[in-house]
Amino acid sequence: MASRREQREYALQICFANFFDKDDVENTISHIHHMDDDELKHADGELTKRLVDAVCANAETYDKKIESKLKDWTIDRISTIDRMILRLAIAEFEECTDIPNEITINEMLELAKKYSTDKSKNFINGVLDALLKDKH
What we know:
Blueprint: H1 4-21, H2 25-35, H3 38-41, H4 46-67, H5 80-95, H6 101-115, H7 118-135
Helix pairs in contact: 1-2, 1-4, 1-5, 4-5, 5-6, 5-7, 6-7
């Protein structure tokens, strides 16, 4: 079984691909399995499914939550990868209440380090902190 970190990374890859493919998620997953290495095939798991399902079902709602925390920006100005990381974080906050929010944020920042820029990491952290303040 894949670690939670691997499952989050896989969910990010699926959501990112699906954003451009505009296909159904199962088809996107199938394409990714055929395109990537064997390791990726084993990264699928329950957390991946929960996150991808939540992001696909609630993308517009998540984008509104993100946009509510932006100052002098619109959602369209955020890079696609950063938007997907933010959507995944919101999905994990809402769907995986057994995972502490601090761990979710840390894991999303690790994804940002790997897939985005140094500035993005700080931006993502700021948006997620602002979103969590609303929850309390």
